[in-house]
Amino acid sequence: MGLQLRDIDVLEELYTEENPSEINLKNLANLLGLTGKDLAGALHIDATVLSRNPYDSSNKYLKQWMMVFNLIITIIADSEPSLSDDQIKVKMQRWLKLPRPEFQGDSALEYMIKGKIRRVKNLLEQVVA
What is this structure's pTM? Predict the structure, then answer.
């Protein structure tokens, strides 16, 4: 699943101006309310990378996270087409942080941080299907 124009618009603050395919990991951590250390651990990268160079487009874990964000954005935009990009982003943040029975009371974000992103992605793919 590739990025769609709407997905980039919703999350445009994450992309670097110099290279639109790269993600600013500091901005991603801020968007999710995570520390750089927590995000670095979840993405299996050295936390010092965030302070030296906040961009990383090749990380396979980051790509999986972006796929999850894209699925959430698609579900929200399809169910409520009149929402602005900012409203979609707020709903996405809220969805990621709310405890879910599907994840034994954890939030989707907590599950993702624990490395269980496949479970989150599978749930979202079932909703889209």
Answer: 0.84
